[in-house]
């Protein structure tokens, strides 16, 4: 038997919200949710689930949701809400189930605050027919019953006079967002961060859409200051990062990626980070990488470079230079030569690596920048083993970035491919610095 639940979401990052909910449902093997009923314009989504356990698992990790409630009813106004609750065939059963539990009432609203407009005591009294016998407990009650009012905002700061809709439900699970994940991982409070650090909210959302799983290995090949490693660690993956820039990997003094993990009490999740050019990857080929999550260099704050000589003819023979009888390139302070590389080629390498190293159904998720030119088609990199599952866009003024999420379907998948074709029409870096003119 299934039961009705009400998901109360946040109206932000709408291009990512459904992908997060779907990915978390899939991660927990939840099949009863009818995503055809999902409405992008509404913060509410009524779903069917087997039980509270399923609801808890599904929503506890969510960042773009506030909470999930057992659904008791809804109406355009309070009389309609009361009628809807009492006419529901499950009403008597629900009431009995929790009648002796300690409880409290809470009020939530969307589209403005009801404070001042609603007489809360009178409102609570109007639910007397619930006949709860348990004690009212404001701290740690066994059950929280929630009234959620939806208003049409008059403007950005003011709610409408009367609610458009009122819901009633029993709180089953607050989301990670509601439980303070955004404050905890706020970049402002992070010991080690830099100009390339990725904000907390979307890095956690990315980890959810990438289905980073507890106890599995997550790899960020362009780790920088470790924002995605931090997000992966939060969801209890064992994380490994690498970056061509040793300064990023080492940090300074107490400001290191490791120190961030210590602050978040996630040290056990931190496997290690290493200085390495992704295109000359040294990770053991039998190391099982379950998920790849990253933010490759766009060439804006840092140019795209790989190991190698820009002008191989001029460099010829220099690899044999010796100092005091020792090959220079084997010395600890040797700085290898680097050559420029294109974003296209780097993303091709990333897709090839994911196809070769992820398990079947493992996910690769990465961010890709795009100039918002009407006349330039955005070509998404595709590999024949990888199914492109999501392409979630975050818009800025003249450019956007996309979270591209792929599932490794293996060599028999035979999907469309465009690796090796040089997809970019124009260099994103040049366009960025020219103000997209
Ligand atoms: C957009 S930043 C990623 C930032 C990271 N998400 C963070 O939290 O700081 C891209 C990173 O890729 C690194 N990078 C550039 N070329 C690379 C290469 N060939 N191999 C590995 N890392 C590279 C840069 O040093 C930079 O730190």
Automatic annotation (TrEMBL):
<comment type="similarity">
    <text>Belongs to the class I-like SAM-binding methyltransferase superfamily. TRM11 methyltransferase family.</text>
</comment>
<dbReference type="InterPro" id="IPR002052">
    <property type="entry name" value="DNA_methylase_N6_adenine_CS"/>
</dbReference>
<keyword id="KW-0489">Methyltransferase</keyword>
<feature type="domain" description="tRNA (guanine(10)-N(2))-methyltransferase TRMT11 N-terminal">
    <location>
        <begin position="3"/>
        <end position="177"/>
    </location>
</feature>
<dbReference type="GO" id="GO:0005737">
    <property type="term" value="C:cytoplasm"/>
</dbReference>
<dbReference type="InterPro" id="IPR029063">
    <property type="entry name" value="SAM-dependent_MTases_sf"/>
</dbReference>
<dbReference type="InterPro" id="IPR000241">
    <property type="entry name" value="RlmKL-like_Mtase"/>
</dbReference>
<dbReference type="GO" id="GO:0043528">
    <property type="term" value="C:tRNA (m2G10) methyltransferase complex"/>
</dbReference>
<dbReference type="InterPro" id="IPR016691">
    <property type="entry name" value="TRMT11"/>
</dbReference>
<keyword id="KW-0949">S-adenosyl-L-methionine</keyword>
<dbReference type="GO" id="GO:0160102">
    <property type="term" value="F:tRNA (guanine(10)-N2)-methyltransferase activity"/>
</dbReference>
<keyword id="KW-0820">tRNA-binding</keyword>
<keyword id="KW-0694">RNA-binding</keyword>
<dbReference type="InterPro" id="IPR059073">
    <property type="entry name" value="TRMT11_N"/>
</dbReference>
<dbReference type="GO" id="GO:0000049">
    <property type="term" value="F:tRNA binding"/>
</dbReference>
<dbReference type="Pfam" id="PF01170">
    <property type="entry name" value="UPF0020"/>
</dbReference>
<dbReference type="Pfam" id="PF25904">
    <property type="entry name" value="Tmrp11_N"/>
</dbReference>
<protein>
    <recommendedName>
        <fullName>tRNA (guanine(10)-N(2))-methyltransferase</fullName>
        <ecNumber>2.1.1.214</ecNumber>
    </recommendedName>
</protein>
<feature type="domain" description="Ribosomal RNA large subunit methyltransferase K/L-like methyltransferase">
    <location>
        <begin position="189"/>
        <end position="301"/>
    </location>
</feature>
<keyword id="KW-0963">Cytoplasm</keyword>
<keyword id="KW-0808">Transferase</keyword>
<keyword id="KW-0819">tRNA processing</keyword>
<dbReference type="GO" id="GO:0030488">
    <property type="term" value="P:tRNA methylation"/>
</dbReference>
